[in-house]
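Lab notebook, design round three. We kept the backbone fixed and only want residue identities now. Task for the bench partner: fill in a sequence for the structure below.
Input structure tokens:
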């Protein structure tokens, strides 16, 4: 049996071959026993080395590195090829602290394995990981330039970023089947991944997050889903979602690719790709583009189709809708005809003005403009006529600009058309003839019959020209 003081000398010589010069040691671990609670035991091995066992509270340090490991008992095998720590295990180096029920340190690769009730804390940013199994690879000169870890069996991570002033921000709560972390700011997760914070939540098969120089991330598979939980909630899905973080590690821009779909309180948007610009947890802008799934945006008041779309909604107020490439913008469906008023062209832009506080609607249409083979279809009701159906106004030109009356009125003020202009106006009803007695002089008994004014074969009703297209793609 060997007591603790002698064991320290034996252990050091077995691992390091004596005390090496500091420059030659690099950052490799050369064990020294700092504390042994009771006598240790030593046994030789077939390889000519030996195993060492100690208990009663053991603390080992890696000489000249600041790394320490301690537990209730230690088993040191084959001259230090690997060392097992059992009961109340604690590992400390310059970047992390870790506790577990069991731990093993492997000399080859400088790898630390923690098992059962593992809790790791990053000393630099305060991030924590809890779970049943973790492999930790500390930074060692000549082996790896930064620490790495791999955790399996669904660990839970509280992942802190920092703002531009270095202050710790609200953590991301991440849960996954498997997690890999590199340094203080890079992470990969796979297997039913969830990421949550007070301002958003995400679900996917895998996740990449870089809160360092990259300031970005991505969610893949599931399909991935991202939900905004702030004052302007939204839901975004696709096959892939790319994330961009600002300098304060806040979510600032997201892009869903391949079968993208975005929904908020006002809009339902589908396209190949959809991007959301986020400022202070609110949607500042929504963008959509693609050809296999042509962008389409729907709201209570509008339907928009084009090769690409842009919706500006700063401070949750609609300011402008822009549509490019075979663009088409329709209003709400008319309750009588079931048709929409619409404008179309190469480009269609709708501009809005903010309404007064207290109004039900936040914004009103101010101007509508179509450019490039512009067309306009409008249904007009005449309140002075008895006809319940609207007249149809269809015009074409190179450019059409519709100016609206200022709120609270919601009617057209004027229309300007440029280029080669043509169109058609269709009235839905025939004005009935004036009663005959209203034309007769006193005492006159002559009755004017409408048929007497018509040519042979003619009728009182005027022919109806072919209508314009009610709705274009």
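Proposed sequence:
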């Amino acid at each position: 049996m060997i007591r603790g003081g002698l064991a320290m000398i034996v252990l050091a010589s077995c691992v390091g071959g004596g005390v090496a010069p500091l420059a030659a040691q690099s950052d490799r671990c050369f064990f020294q026993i700092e504390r042994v609670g009771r006598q240790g035991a030593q046994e030789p091995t077939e390889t000519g080395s030996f195993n060492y066992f100690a208990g009663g509270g053991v603390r080992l340090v890696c000489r000249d590195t600041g790394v320490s490991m301690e537990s209730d008992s230690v088993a040191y095998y084959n001259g230090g090829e690997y060392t097992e720590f059992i009961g109340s295990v604690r590992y400390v180096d310059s970047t992390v602290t870790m506790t577990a029920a069991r731990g093993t340190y492997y000399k080859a690769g400088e790898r630390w394995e923690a098992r059962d009730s593992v809790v790791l804390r990053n000393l630099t940013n305060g991030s924590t990981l809890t779970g049943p199994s973790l492999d930790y690879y500390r930074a060692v000169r000549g082996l790896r330039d930064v620490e790495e870890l791999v955790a399996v069996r669904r660990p839970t991570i509280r992942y802190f970023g920092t703002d531009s002033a270095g202050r710790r921000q609200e953590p991301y709560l991440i849960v996954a089947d498997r997690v890999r972390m590199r340094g203080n700011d890079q992470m990969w997760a796979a297997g039913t991944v969830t990421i949550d914070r007070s301002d958003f939540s995400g679900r996917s098969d895998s996740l990449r997050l870089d809160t360092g120089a990259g300031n970005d991330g991505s969610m893949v598979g599931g399909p991935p889903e991202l939900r905004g939980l702030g004052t302007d909630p939204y839901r975004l899905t696709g096959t892939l979602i790319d994330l961009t973080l600002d300098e304060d590690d806040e979510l600032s821009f997201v892009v869903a690719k391949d079968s993208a779909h975005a929904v908020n309180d006002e809009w339902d948007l589908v396209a190949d790709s959809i991007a959301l610009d986020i400022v202070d947890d609110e949607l500042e802008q929504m963008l959509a583009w693609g050809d296999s799934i042509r962008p389409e945006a729907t709201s209570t008041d509008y339907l928009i189709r084009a090769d690409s779309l842009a919706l500006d909604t700063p401070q949750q107020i609609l300011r402008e809708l822009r549509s490019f490439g075979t663009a088409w913008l329709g209003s709400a469906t008319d309750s009588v005809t079931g048709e929409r008023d619409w404008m179309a062209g190469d480009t269609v832009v709708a501009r809005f003005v903010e309404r007064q506080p207290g109004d039900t609607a936040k914004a009103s249409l101010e101007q509508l403009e179509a450019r490039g083979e512009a067309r306009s279809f409008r249904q007009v009701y005449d309140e002075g006529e008895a006809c319940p159906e609207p007249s149809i106004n269809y015009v074409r030109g190179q450019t059409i600009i519709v100016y609206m009356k200022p709120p609270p009125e919601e009617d057209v003020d004027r229309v300007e058309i440029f280029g080669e202009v043509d169109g058609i106006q269709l009235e839905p009803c025939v004005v009935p003839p004036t009663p005959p007695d209203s034309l007769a002089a006193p005492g006159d008994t002559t009755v004017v019959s409408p048929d007497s004014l018509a040519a042979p074969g003619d009728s009182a009703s005027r022919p109806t020209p072919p209508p314009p297209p009610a709705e274009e793609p």
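Keep this in mind before ordering anything: The CA atoms of residues 32 and 61 lie 5 Å apart.
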